[in-house]
Amino acid sequence: MRTEFDVVIAGGGYVGLSLGCALAGANAGLRIAVAEPRPLGGSPDGRASAIAAAGRRLFERLDVWADIVADAQPINEMIVTDSRLEDSTRPVFLTFAGAPEAGRPFAYMVPNATMVTALARRAAALGVTLLPPTRIDGFDVGPARVTLRTVPDQGALSTRLLVAADGAKSRLRDLAAIRTVTWDYGQSGIVATVTHERPHGGRAEEHFLPAGPFAILPLTDDAQGRHRSSLVWTERSRQADRIVALDDFTFRLELERRFGRHLGDLGLAGPRRAFPLGLQLTRDWVKPRLALVGDAAHAIHPIAGQGLNLGLRDVAALAEVVVDAGRLGLDIGALDVIERYQAWRRFDTFEMGVVTDVLNRLFANDFSPLRLARDVGLGLVDRLPALKERFVDEAAGSGAGVPRLLLGEAL
Description:
With 411 residues, the protein is of the alpha+beta class. 34% of the residues lie in helices and 29% in strands. Helix 1 (14-26) runs parallel beside helix 4 (112-125), helix 1 (14-26) packs parallel to helix 8 and helix 8 packs antiparallel against helix 9. The chain contains eleven helices and 20 strands. The model has no long low-confidence stretch (mean pLDDT 89). The chain has a domain at 4-67 and 112-181 and 280-407: FAD/NAD(P)-binding domain (3-Layer(bba) Sandwich). Strands 5, 6, 12, 13, 14, 15, 16, 17 and 20 form a nine-stranded mixed sheet that branches.
């Protein structure tokens, strides 16, 4: 096996594999490896993610969208409500519909396992080395290369640039002594897939409840033709642990109180899990010959559904910086090169972190005057088409300073 690489990516999720595909697709001469401690695509947890139009354009440019689209459920409409759990009705205060591109929805829901499988297949076809299950246990930075220590031992691996795509609990970030700003919300997100009698029609729903948002996100029908939706259900952490531990019958009763019966009888289509929620932003995105991407650099509240899309923005920006530097004959791992990536992504991510933090604090609150003020605000936004269109365009990746891959352009 080759031991010297140009880029080694620690993390074989959709962020790490997308970066490998982007780099290999733009420069076939780059020697790229992906190291993931678990078998690629293994241990699917049933989670799905919302992919904005910009992410879909990136996947099209990487030639993986054709392998994803069959499992991709278009989101044609989104409604937002604000109510208490015991309220008999949930008035809709805000509706998003339309498309940033003619004939294309503004987002899709895609199972994470589908994305990882398609990306791993494409990475292998492009010549990316997919290491057998491997954890990077340490590294030593030299003047021109990084020497890696791995478990199990894969020999004397080295690289010009090491990329940490190993998640919110990034080992590489800790080894590099990169500090983070962290805030625990005292909330957990319960994730589950449910079946329902009636079709969802491609509509996503976000119900703001005092404990936090309860999001119903449409999925494609399963192999048996059952209608399905993905849930991201926010509760206080102790309450979430209690709910997840309930038997199936009692869990469905709790679910129905929040979900309602507008889609008919509900069923469970897999396990449910609870994940702690918080805000985590790194103070530095790069160190000599090391760059952080995805959740290793930032973890935000899922209230706006932008976690995956922020990670894909990191991928597109870092790939553009590395490919452009290589074409100019520059050292792709040099600090002054990868600092351009840090400057590009830092403010956008900080801004999104602040927005999601404020939204969570604003809506996970049962203070009556505040409820009235936010409902008036939602109603005003709903009556301002230009403002709603701007929100959709931003979510779809049509703002200023967007990396080329997110515009569907080649590197």
